Amino acid sequence: MLPVPDARVEVPRSLDEALSLLARAAQQGVRARVLAGGTDLVPNLKRGQERAELLVSLASVRGLDDIGESEGELRIGALSRLARVSAHPLVRDRAAVIAKTAALIASPQIREMATIGGNLCLDTRCRHVNQTGFWRDALGNCIKAPGANVAPPCHVVPGGRHCVASASADLPPLLLALGARVRIVSRDGERTIAMGTLYRNDGVAPLTLAAGELLAEILVPTHGLRAAYQKLRARRAIDFPVLGLAVALRADADATCRQLQVVATGVTPAPRAVGKLDPIAVGQKLDRGTVAAIGARCREGLKPLTTFGDDTEWRRDMIPVLVRRAFAELGFGG
Ligand SMILES: Cc1cc2nc3c(=O)[nH]c(=O)nc-3n(C[C@H](O)[C@H](O)[C@H](O)COP(=O)(O)OP(=O)(O)OC[C@H]3O[C@@H](n4cnc5c(N)ncnc54)[C@H](O)[C@@H]3O)c2cc1C
C-alpha cells in the first residue's frame, strides 16, 4: 500500500479559522490544499501526482453542508456528501437530475465520504499522470507531474506544450448546463460567480480559485430547465466517465425548442459547452431528425484525445448516441 507523504494537517473548528490558515499559507508561499472527503486528493498525494505541505481539513467546519432554497435557487453547501445530495428530498424535488447524477458517481462507500465541492474542484485526469511515481518515471514524466523535467513532454499530444489532462467529474457539466453559480469565500470576503468562470482550459491548473479561497456553496436556478445526464464508462459502477454529456433545455408543449445547452466532460481540461447549437435546435421541433442533427453537431464539436486510452473513435462515435439517449430521457426525439 502506498503511504501518504508527510504534510502538516490542520483541522480548524470554524470557517474563519480555515480561511485564516489558507490565507497565512498563501502569504508564506506554503503549498496548501483543502481536504474535504479526500477520496481524490488522498490517492493523488499517495501517487505523488499532487504535492502539499499543508492539508486544511474541513471535517470539523460547521455550516458548509446545508441544503436549502432561496429566491428561486437550490443552495447546496460545498461540504454536502454525495450520498446525502442524492437522497435529499429538496434536491430530489427541485432538481431530481442532480440527485440522479450524484448517485452515478464512484461507489456507495465513496459517496458517503465524497463531497459535492470536491467533485466540482476535482483535479484533471490522464492515463499518464494518474499512475505511481515509479510508473511515471519509467516513461519520462509529463507536463502535469510535479517535479517534471525541464522541458517535459506530453504523451497524449506529442510535442504539445499545453496539458490536456481532462475534466472527469460528473456533476460540473450538469450544473453548468443548468446555469449554476458558485459562492467562493476567502479571508478577504466572498464572491459569487457563474460556474463556468470557475474553470479554465489548463490540465495543470484547471481552477480559477486563488490561493486562500475555497468553494462554499453551489446555487442552482430552479427555473424550469429540463435536464438529463448521460455517462459513458468502461464498467457501470465505480468508474470515472470517459465521456459525460449533460443536456438542458426549455421547450414548448408541442416540443418546439426554446433553449438548449449541451455540456461535456471527459474531453478537455475544462467541462466543454458545445457551440453553434441554436441554429439547429431553437425554434425547431425536437423530433428524431432535429435530435440527430444536434448529435452530429456535438460529435463535430467535441474531439476526445487519447487522454484515457486508445479509444478515441469509440468515445467520439458514442457522442450522438449519448445525445439521443439524453433527449429520449426527456421525452424527445422519438
Ligand atoms: C474509485 C473511485 C472512483 C471515482 N469515480 C468517480 C466518478 O465516477 N465520477 C466523479 O465525478 N468522481 C469520481 N471519483 C472522484 C471523487 O471521489 C469525487 O469526485 C468526489 O466528489 C471528490 O470529493 P471529495 O470531497 O472526496 O474531494 P477531495 O478529494 O477532498 O478533494 C478533491 C479536490 O478538490 C479540492 N477541494 C475539495 N473541496 C473543496 C472546497 N470546498 N473548496 C476548494 N477546493 C476544494 C481539494 O483540495 C482537491 O484538490 C472517484 C474516486 C475514486 C477513488
Offer a concise description of the structure.
This protein has 334 residues and is α+β, with helices and mostly antiparallel strands. It has helices at 15-28, 41-46, 82-87, 89-94, 96-102, 108-113, 116-120, 133-139, 171-177, 278-281, 288-301, 312-329; strands at 8-10, 32-35, 54-57, 67-70, 73-77, 181-186, 189-194, 214-221, 226-232, 243-251, 257-265, 272-273. The model has no long low-confidence stretch (mean pLDDT 95).
What is the element layout, followed by pairings?
Blueprint: E1 8-10, H1 15-28, E2 32-35, H2 41-46, E3 54-57, E4 67-70, E5 73-77, H3 82-87, H4 89-94, H5 96-102, H6 108-113, H7 116-120, H8 133-139, H9 171-177, E6 181-186, E7 189-194, E8 214-221, E9 226-232, E10 243-251, E11 257-265, E12 272-273, H10 278-281, H11 288-301, H12 312-329
Parallel strand pairs: 1-3, 2-3
Antiparallel strand pairs: 4-5, 5-8, 6-7, 6-8, 9-10, 10-11, 11-12
Residues 33-41, 43, 78, 82, 105-106, 110, 113-115, 117-119, 121-123, 169-170, 209, 214-215, 238-240 line the site of flavin-adenine dinucleotide.
